[in-house]
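Class, carefully examine what follows:
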Amino acid sequence: MEETRTVIFDLMRGSQAPISVFDDQDRLRFANDAFRATFDLAADAHPTWAEIMRSNWLGTRGTAITSADFEKWLTSAQSRRG
């Protein structure tokens, strides 16, 4: 089982598709290089999903958010995260 887990994480790390894993507090616990590049995150950064969205909205990068009211958009988006 551990060998399978290692293989899966190695595949995720090497993928060009952005891949991330968040914990039950919505804090980033794993992100491959593609995810970190997309959302402009340092290798040692472990922000919450909301912090990533806020930072990227302010910097106009990452997720394209066109709402004039970011906090309203964030509240709505968080209500749908599972």
Summary: The beta strands are 20-22, 28-31. The chain has a mean pLDDT of 92. The chain has four helices and two strands.
